[in-house]
Amino acid sequence: MKKIYMYAIAVLMFANTIFGQFNAGASGIILFPQGEFKQNIGENGYGISFNGSYKFKGTPFSLGLNTGWARYGSETRTETLIWPVRVDVTTGNDIYFAQLFSRIELDAGFIKPYGEILFGFNYLNTNTEISDVDVFGFDDIASDTQFDDINLSYGFAAGAMIKIYDYKGGNDYLDKLFFDFRMSYMQGGNAEYLKEGDLIKGANNEILFNKSQSAIDYVTINVGLSFQFNAQ
CA–CA separation, 119 vs 156, rounded Å? Predict the structure, then answer.
C-alpha cells in the first residue's frame, strides 16, 4: 500500500512543478484482463490511478503521465508471530503501470471529450506483507516480493471531463474541477506472473511457483476527479 501513496505524491509533485496550464487528477479503476491474460487469472483488478498533463497554450494538444495500480487477487490469513502476538499475512497479486500519453481534447463548454495515445510499461508482482490485525494496511511490519516481471505496453484511451465547479474569482491558480470518465485499451508484450493460489509451500518449506505466461492485454475504466490549473 505504501507504494501506492508514493505514486500519488510523485505525480502530484510533478504536476505542480510545471509552469503552464495543466490538469492533475485521481480516479478509481477497474481493470478487465483480455485474451489469454483473462483466461489465466479469471479475475478483474481494482485499484487507483493518478495523472498529470501539460496543455500547450492555444492548442487542443496535451502531454502527460498516467500511473496506477490494480490488485487482481489476494489471500489473507492470521498467524501467531510470537505468542500471543497475532498478525495478518496477505499475499497480493498486483499490476503497476506507468504510461506517457499525448492527448487531443475538444472544449465544448461544460464538457471536454478527449482521446489519447499511450506508451509505457507494466510491472507485475506477487508480494507478501505482514501487518497488525484489523489495521487497514498503513503499518506493514515486513514485506517480501516472491515473484515479478515487467513488459512494455501501448494503447489508446477515450474519455470526457464534465465541469462540476468553476473557481471564478476565488483563486488565481486553481481554475476548474471536473468529473473525469475514461476508458483505455492496452496491449502488452509477454510476461510471467502468478495468480491467486499460485504461491505454494513445498514439503521442506521451500517456495514453489505455478507460473502463467501471456501477453498482458487489458481494458480499464477510470472514474474520478480532475483539477485544471491556470497558466502562470
Answer: 9
